[in-house]
Description:
Number of strands: 9
Number of helices: 12
CATH superfamily of the largest domain: Vaccinia Virus protein VP39
Amino acid sequence: MFENALDELLTLRDLLRFTVSRYTEAGVFFGHGTDNAWDEAAYLLLHSLHLPLDRLEPFLDGRLTRDERAAALRVIERRISERLPVAYLTNQAWLAGYRFYVDPRVIVPRSFIAELLQEQLAPWIEAPEQVSTLLDLCTGSGCLAVIAAHAFPEASVDAVDISPDALAVARRNVADYELGERIRLVESDLFAGVRSRRYDLIVSNPPYVKAESMASLPAEYRCEPELALASGEDGLELTRAILAAARTQLRPGGLLVVEIGHNRDELEAAFPDTPFTWLDTSAGDQYVFLLQRDELP
């Protein structure tokens, strides 16, 4: 079918229709930046053809060269046959309006903490200059560290990850935003490499997928590093470790902000005496909690 498409499809509109049909036929899974076949197909084709990502309509009926059609079809075929997230095919992902380089060494950025950072965690932080030291724990691609550095321009930022591969990707993103003097990348198992440091704010989007869910993840998610997803039987292994050690890493009055996926009920059952504050995000108030230093267990 792809061989026939090379000769029979002539315009971007033709390719877009073909891609949506093949996505639907193959049952590909969406969840890395888009949630439907049309949006993803439009993005991937515009990127492959080096066209503006926000200008589809003017180009829909433009005829493509044979080489352009071949290049676009190769990418679409890989998306379907290998089940690769689009971000790995384009080597870019967008979060809170920031573009990041990504590849299979890191998960695709998608943290709700990004939007909270853009709001500078108001009203919990009254002014951005209150934050002079900040830790992004489990930084992965470095996306939250970069966004945090922009949100709190007076802060020095430590970005920690256990994976040297992930830190290599983070280093590229830090360099792209010219933040090398403000963001320090640290290879560390959680707090082990920053024991002597104290922070006004710690943010973390740690692994939080439970074992049962790991076993049933769509193929697209299994392309991501398991180290960045899996967190024990109930998904709280890393969160428990963070809660156990965060108090000593925070300055008086400091804040801890952690994303935990769909594990709110399990977390509250495991820590019934801890007064979690659940922060409002675009997806609701069950994914990210905040604790002040004195509230930590």
